[in-house]
Write a structure and sequence with these properties.
The protein is of the alpha/beta class. The chain is built from six helices and five strands. The protein is about 45% helix and about 15% strand. Helix 1 links the parallel strand 1 and strand 2. The structure holds D-ribose.
């Protein structure tokens, strides 16, 4: 699985922890920035990640900002992006099963960082259920 990951300054510390997890588990990824805690604008990184996922170059994306809110709103403006803002493991599993989310957003200033790694693990390993959920996802794509 190919992952693209991005953040703003508020998500930078958590991004580094997630990257360490991806490296330890030999998961292929590209980091599109930002690369420090210097203030930047999250929509730029949301767009970079969402475009790389929706173009098919990458299978999934991960986005981090302070709350996860702004960066998820921005990612969902890109057609084909289904970015889920998640702060618990049950939602991580359900958003894969029901929404086929292709981007995971979290808030680096909100979620405990060990919990965030659990969320990543569950989100990456859970499959879409299809069936009635596919009809609903297709309906989203028509918008
Ligand atoms: C940046 O200060 C902060 O607004 C951003 O990281 C994010 O929380 C926005 O939703």
């Amino acid at each position: 699985m190919r992952i693209v990951i991005g953040c703003d300054h508020g998500g930078y510390v958590l991004k580094k922890k997630i990257i360490a997890y991806l490296e330890e588990n030999n998961i292929t990824f590209e980091d599109v920035g930002s690369y420090s805690e210097e203030s930047v604008d999250y929509p730029e990184y949301a767009r970079k990640v969402a475009k790389k996922v929706t173009s098919g170059k990458f299978d999934r994306g991960i986005l981090l900002c302070g709350t996860g809110i702004g960066i998820s709103i921005a990612a969902n403006k890109v057609k084909g992006a289904r970015c889920a803002l998640v702060h618990d493991v049950e939602s991580a599993s359900l958003t894969r099963q029901h929404n086929d989310s292709n981007i995971l957003a979290m808030g680096g200033r909100i979620v405990d960082h060990n919990l965030a790694l659990e969320i990543v693990k569950i989100w990456l390993s859970t499959d879409f259920e299809g069936g009635r959920h596919l009809r609903r996802v297709n309906s989203i794509e028509e918008v």
